Amino acid sequence: MSLAKAKITHPVTPVAPPTYRLGDEQLDPVLADLPSMMADAPLAWQRTRPRWIRKEIAAFHPADALQAGLAGQIVVLRHLAVRTLGVADLGGNAPAPARRLGRAAAATMREGERLECALRRLQKTAVPPGGARATEGCDLPAGAVA
Length: 146
What we know:
Layout: H1 3-6, H2 24-33, H3 43-58, H4 65-89, H5 95-125, H6 132-136, H7 140-143
Helix pairs in contact: 2-4, 3-4, 4-5
């Protein structure tokens, strides 16, 4: 067998970009924006809430601080919508206020979905470090207008 036939090239598998690590200085505003917990919430639940929120944000796979901020706002809007629906569902509400609260929750969810679409669009068009557009170079004289 010749040496030319012995060489086998393996396809390069793309490496997933690392997920952005959300710091405490970025998580604190998200936790402040979330609806308050129940007054009689167990202490263990109160301690693990930041970890849950961090996991919810990480589920969106943010690549940088901007994407992490958008993911945090999506999580906040989802929590607000669920809390609003919970208030609307309480038995003490008359039908008219319950409908208004339901519409407010639906509008909040729509805003969250709109932000999620924006985040997905941003993630799709983002250039990874050392990506194709970063290595193409730039020809300034060709782009100059005469």
